[in-house]
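User: Sequence in, structure out. Go.
Assistant: Echoing your sequence, followed by the structure tokens.
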Amino acid sequence: MTTYTLSNFDFHLPPELIAQQPATERSASRLLDGRGAFPVDRVFRDLPGLLRSGDLLVFNDTRVIKARLYGEKPTGGAVEALIERLLPGNEVLAHLRASKSPKPGGSIRFGDDPAQGFDAEVLGRSGVDGSLFHLRFPEDPLALLERFGHVPLPPYITHADAAEDAQRYQTVFAARPGAVAAPTASLHFDDGVLQALRERGVKSANVTLHVGAGTFQPVRSENLSEHRMHSEWFEVSDATVAAIEATRAAGGRVIAAGTTTLRALESAACGGRLEAGARDTDIFITPGFEFRVADLLITNFHLPKSTLMMLVSAFSGYEHVRALYRHAVEARYRFFSYGDAMLLERRR
């Protein structure tokens, strides 16, 4: 079996192909149909016609929270926080950027206008490598983030968040708050496409995976076995397991809407069979991985050398994905979170 290194997942991406704004209409984005030997250029609203009655489309119903906060320490030093996870007792885990790290027992004043903001208590450090800060908010973090927070746009989107981002960096079916990055493949779905899918006889089910900031974490080791994946919380319900089993029994296909949905499903099946439950996952999917659940994958275009490039290469074949990406660059597809999508089939 081929041994892949980090360099195998690099490619040249002209900077102007990194989408800075979403398409005018969600379903007007382009869709690269990569199921066959040769790529086919389509539009996302063509998707219902590419699926069959009896197929099951699985969505990630997580909701992006306004996870970015700006504030200052009592000394006046600036602080930027990105909330990674909500905890019981009005507590959170957060990434902090500051000239000097705040100490346990200290406080941070959050809010664009400090006079109108709130104080968070620093409880200590957390995480395997101590990279997260454990904070306690004075009241419900979700309410405070909605009032004082900013949409956590990815680092490659260069504009400050605006009212449009609060709507468009969120799926139309988002339900369960907790993500700090959107499940971007699902940003292309609108009410019209969802209705067309229902009329086609395509069924749907949900999982939840709260996407963490670690999704943008670079892989720093050429040897992939040395990379430690970030951990994310996910849940697969009994109803979703039953829907997948019924689809299989009837000869239908399971389509994962996005890599986050795929990670949740395959994490729930890593014991050999799909099982309902909720827990953390740090699954790292690279070529050679044995997929057990998804037959098709809808996904955006990913960063060079990223773990998601490795995932799609594992799913649809390394050389095949390389060829699709070459076509996407030549055909001027738009890349990353606000970019276009593609449809992939699992290589048996």
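User: And one key feature?
Assistant: The first strand starts at residue 30 and ends at 33.
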